[in-house]
Design brief:
This protein has 193 residues and is an alpha/beta fold. Helix content is 17%, strand content 31%. Bound molecules: coenzyme A.
């Protein structure tokens, strides 16, 4: 096994820090540190494009966030015993809202567009039925277009794209482009070699 020279490692870490500061800015990282006070189970957070911190409404659940970016107006609502997970490299654009009554799992390197709403519950019971919560999973490298809504029980397969304004009511196979209300597959994406 090859051993990394301490000098090389230091250079790599320095390079990573420089890259982060270039992309997130010093202000973004300082705000990220403030946000970390509300999200103790998180990696390196960056708050982009403004001063407003995301709203964290944790009602006794668990929120695990990797190295992620947040734009102004983001809101995470985590009900009692529920879980929200967001993988490293993902960002949530302006006014995105996540509501978890059971669990909402967002993978790595996802781009969640502005005004997106992800809910794993209808929040109100239908007459004659108990209130349902069904986990939502958004796999790695998914891009969700602006103003899309992702509803309970949906799994969006990795490397998929959700069109702007779509309402996703059923699961999406990996590498699909879906759009419309309800969202339907409009094409598949070739795997990159
Ligand atoms: C989904 C998307 C990526 C597809 O782009 P594209 O591959 O260039 O798609 P096309 O424009 O060729 O459209 C293909 C078909 O899907 C339909 N379609 C595309 N996007 C749609 C959408 N969001 N809702 C409904 N139908 C849509 C088109 O009308 C077209 O239908 P037709 O073949 O019957 O005419 C793009 O339309 C989109 O929604 N981008 C999201 C942009 C966004 O929100 N960015 C983030 C900002 S924060």
């Amino acid at each position: 096994m090859q051993r990394a020279w301490p000098g090389n490692r230091t250079a790599r870490v320095r390079g990573r820090i420089a890259h982060r500061l270039r992309t997130g800015g010093i202000r973004g990282h300082l705000l990220g540190l403030l946000l970390k006070l509300k999200l103790p189970r998180s990696g390196v957070l960056v708050v982009m494009a403004g001063w407003r911190l995301p709203e964290i409404d944790d009602r006794g659940g668990r929120i695990d966030v990797g190295d992620c970016g947040f734009f102004p107006g983001v809101r995470l609502e985590c009900w009692r015993d529920a879980v929200i997970r967001i993988g490293s490299g993902s960002y949530l654009n302006r006014n995105t809202e996540i509501v978890a009554a059971a669990s909402v799992d967002i993978g790595r390197d996802c781009k969640i567009g502005r005004d997106v709403l992800v809910m794993d519950t209808d929040q109100h019971a239908l007459p004659g039925r108990p209130l349902e919560a069904r986990p939502v999973v958004i796999e790695d490298r998914v891009w969700i277009g602006a103003r899309a809504i992702v509803l309970k029980g949906v799994r969006i397969g990795h490397d998929s794209v959700v069109g702007a304004g779509s309402i996703v009511t059923r699961s999406v196979p990996p590498r699909s482009v879906v759009a419309g209300q309800p969202a339907r597959v409009i094409r598949s994406i070739e795997a990159q070699s």
